[in-house]
Design goal:
The chain has 11 helices and 13 strands. By secondary structure, it is an alpha/beta fold.
């Protein structure tokens, strides 16, 4: 896998967002009944970056934050996790950082996300053109960054510059309907991003969405793996995943855990998969590590704080040697 050469540098550039999360506390509390909350860093790109750093890698983020106390909180959190923020720009005016309020409960789980006038959507061409792409090994981005302008055009420009510098592009489809003007626009833009990517990770609904029918999702993943992408991970929730690589289909299951919440699994899976591949772990074992990271994260409150360190991950894997088989 040519993409693996870049991934093994273990130095990732993420183009996406950083936000703030509120989780009603104690776990199990409904938002409507909230008296206190856990506050944590949020945003898919920032969470993935934090997960990579916690597992021993390097990660830098390209985005914008609001020039206010919430933006300052996000910057402080990036520092806390060791994520390089030299490419994070403050923006004034009416732009505000995204906010997520999600419950630490599975039954009747509620997540509310505020992204009106989001600061990260203000990322522009100058932001991405100021980056020295040759200083990194791989670019990671997610679907949410493409939902509005000028962020959309800037993200496509970042992909162009990354590929020009020889970096593999890793794309988490991460379709969030509330962020998009229309489903048709989202399908066209996300498909275009997928066609430019070397590694694509998404769930059955996301691939089905790009294909125009959920029943055609796996065929869409196979088509991408047989044409432009080197590696495609087609996730199916509790049914596991199908990973498409070099003509092979690797089928894996899931770790059975008592989940506290459904959020954070995708970001943690990406972090675990990338960090493991970067360390030279073979693909089947890297997929297992990514799934373990996801399983650990859903058993703990919040997202970035819930992601494992190497010792946590190894202990989890050692305790479940026979799980996650096809």
């Amino acid at each position: 896998m040519k993409a693996l050469e870049g991934i093994r540098q273990n130095n990732f550039l993420l183009v996406g967002r950083v936000g703030i999360d509120f989780c009603p506390d104690p776990p199990g509390t409904r938002t409507r009944d909230m008296q206190t909350a856990i506050v944590a860093m949020g945003g898919s790109a920032a969470n993935t970056a934090a997960g990579i750093v916690k597992l021993g890698g390097k990660a830098a983020l390209v985005t914008c934050v609001s020039d206010d106390s919430i933006g300052a909180y996000c910057l402080n959190q990036l520092d806390h996790y060791g994520v390089d923020r030299q490419h994070v720009r403050k923006v004034g005016g009416e732009a505000r950082n995204s906010l997520a309020i999600y419950e630490s409960r599975v039954a009747e789980h509620q997540t509310v996300i505020y992204r009106n006038g989001a600061a990260d959507f203000q990322m522009d061409m100058q932001d991405v053109e100021a980056v020295d792409y040759a200083a990194y090994g791989a670019l990671i981005t997610a679907g949410t960054v493409f939902a509005a302008e000028p962020s959309r055009s800037a993200a496509f420009r970042a992909i162009e510059l990354a590929k020009g510098a020889g970096l593999p592009v890793i794309f988490d489809v991460d379709y969030r309907p509330y962020s998009w003007p229309s489903a048709a626009e989202a399908a066209e833009v996300l498909s275009r991003a997928g066609d430019l990517s070397d590694v694509i990770v998404g769930n059955d609904e996301e691939f089905g969405f790009m294909a125009g029918d959920i029943a055609m999702g796996l065929d869409k993943a196979r088509a991408l793996a047989g044409s432009t992408a080197e590696l495609v991970v087609y996730k199916m929730g509790p049914e596991g995943a199908v990973t498409l690589y070099q003509g092979d289909e690797i089928r894996t299951g899931v770790f059975k855990v008592d989940a506290l919440k459904p959020t954070g699994a995708g970001d943690s899976f990406m972090a675990g998969l990338m960090a493991s591949l970067a360390k030279g772990v073979a693909l089947p074992q890297a997929l297992r590590a990514g799934s373990a990271c996801a399983a650990i994260t859903v058993t703990r409150p919040a997202c970035a704080p819930a992601m494992p360190y190497p010792d946590d991950l190894q202990a989890f894997l050692d305790a479940r040697p026979e799980e996650l088989t096809a």
